[in-house]
Specification:
The chain has helices spanning 2-28, 32-41, 48-54, 57-82. It has 83 residues and is mainly alpha-helical.
């Protein structure tokens, strides 16, 4: 029974937090300066060590290779389209 009450309190707290966030967002909609400040306040600078820990270098290299291949194919298609 105690666990149920704790779960309900946690859900209520999360709902309050979401409601507060939505309310705050709605209040900033009409205020361009507040909206811009809110946007930039969400940016988080990462140190080189954090980036190294967060980025999967192998997967990043795979994605870069795929994008290079896609762009090469697209470039060829565009050249063929002109002819």
């Amino acid at each position: 029974m105690k666990d149920d009450k704790q779960a309900m309190d946690a859900n209520s707290s999360a709902a309050d937090s979401i409601a507060d966030s939505v309310d705050e967002y709605l209040q900033t909609l009409g205020n361009e300066d507040a909206r811009e400040q809110r946007y930039y306040s969400q940016e988080q600078p990462f140190s080189a060590d954090e980036m190294t820990r967060l980025v999967n270098e192998e997967r990043l290299n795979e994605l870069l290779a795929q994008s290079d291949a896609f762009l090469s194919t697209l470039n060829g298609e565009i050249k063929d389209f002109d002819e």
